[in-house]
Design goal:
Helix content is 23%, strand content 21%. It contains four helices and nine strands, in the order E-H-E-H-E-E-H-E-H-E-E-E-E. Strand 4, helix 3 and strand 5 (89-93) form a beta-alpha-beta unit. The N and C termini lie far apart (43 Å).
């Protein structure tokens, strides 16, 4: 299997389970592609030997599954990079709550076994995109929700929502 791996690049403790994951996947003969920022972080900050893996820095990567190591913020950044590729994302939660990244680090080995034995289910998420009046895309993608805030309390905002191009009453 091919895995694209993303991770938290700001807090060493949130990415400390990367070595465990990499060792498990190497034993399985997996191909690992690591997002360039995370690759550099693993080498420079965590002093991990990642030379056996390939770094990638474009959105044109291909993988059977993406893995996000961090909290929900890292998961959302991973989803942003995965975009419309229809690649499932496995979220390993090294943050606090873990609504999106809900696999605990101590369960990594069991989860990898389940993936290789096809004993898992995919949870569908809504992918959202927001545009302003000037057709400027604010953020490439969001999952499930977008918050729209007005500049000051005396201003009004108008929202037009559509699903797959069809108007949605707001």
């Amino acid at each position: 299997m091919k895995f694209a791996v993303f991770g938290n690049t700001h807090q060493v403790e949130k990415s400390s389970y990367a070595k465990t994951l990499f060792d498990l996947l190497k034993k399985r003969g997996a191909q690992l592609y690591i997002w360039k920022d995370f690759y550099s972080f693993l080498q420079m900050q965590m002093k991990l030997d990642v030379k056996d893996f390939e770094a990638f820095d474009t959105d044109s990567f291909d993988a059977d599954m993406a893995i996000s190591i961090g909290g929900d913020g890292t998961f959302l950044k991973t989803a942003n990079k995965v975009g419309k590729k229809n690649i499932p994302i496995l979220g390993i939660n090294t943050g606090r709550l873990g609504f999106l990244a809900d696999i605990f680090p101590e369960d990594i080995e069991t989860v990898i076994d389940e993936i290789y034995n096809n004993h898992y289910t995919l949870e569908e998420r809504s992918v959202l995109c927001m545009e302003c009046d000037n057709n400027r895309q604010i953020s490439p993608y969001a999952l499930n929700e977008i918050a729209v805030l007005k500049r000051d309390s005396s201003s009004m905002i108008t929202i037009r929502a559509a699903i797959n191009g069809k108007y949605l009453t707001t």
